[in-house]
UniProtKB/TrEMBL annotation:
Keywords: Phosphoprotein
Name of the protein this chain belongs to: Response regulator
UniProt-listed SMART domains: REC
Lineage: Bacteria, Pseudomonadati, Bacteroidota, Sphingobacteriia, Sphingobacteriales
Residue stretches making up the Response regulatory domain: 9-136
4-aspartylphosphate, modified sites: 66
Pfam family name, one: Response_reg
InterPro entries recorded: CheY-like_superfamily, Sig_transdc_resp-reg_receiver, TCS_response_regulator
Domain of life: Bacteria
Organism, as annotated: Mucilaginibacter defluvii
PROSITE patterns named among the record's database cross-references: RESPONSE_REGULATORY (PS50110)
PANTHER family referenced in this protein's UniProt entry, alphabetically: RESPONSE REGULATOR RCP1 (PTHR44520:SF2), RESPONSE REGULATOR RCP1-RELATED (PTHR44520)
Residues passing through the membrane, by range: none
Length: 138
């Protein structure tokens, strides 16, 4: 389903096609994360992760996760991911990407140890460079 080619694989989960368009442009302009996938369904992504727990070639390295989506919101996604997290054969860095500047959302994101950061939309080249560089240091 998500087949990637190198170790810098990024998966964006967002129900807004414009956000995907912006991210694609930024990724192309920066030359980072050439292996990207853009999906609108968090539930399908959870099923995919569950089916590929030990298949590191299929799993993303980074997930950009929108908070508000129709099928499952970020908190539901993260709660289900938490159950899988211990069994995943490689670390996946999750970044919440939202237009919300709600302090409660930002605090809640810190309760999940695998969430690396809470990022406020719109994405920028600087944010993508930081994510890429953080992965390179890991």
């Amino acid at each position: 389903m998500y087949n990637y080619d190198n170790m810098n694989r990024i998966l964006m989960i967002d129900d807004n096609p414009m956000e995907h368009f912006i991210a694609l442009k930024l990724l192309k302009n920066t030359g980072l994360f050439e292996n990207t996938k853009h999906v609108t369904n968090g539930l399908e992504t959870l099923k995919f992760i569950e089916q590929n727990l030990t298949n590191t070639d299929e799993l993303p390295d980074v997930i950009l996760l929108d908070i508000n989506m129709p099928d499952i919101n970020a908190w539901g996604f993260l709660d289900r991911y938490k159950q899988l997290h211990q069994n995943i054969s490689k670390p996946i860095d999750i970044y919440i990407v939202s237009s919300s500047i709600d302090a409660d959302d930002m605090l809640k994101s810190k309760t999940y140890p695998f969430v690396k950061s809470y990022l406020v939309k719109p994405l920028s080249a600087d944010i993508l460079v930081k994510i890429y560089n953080d992965r390179a240091k890991a």
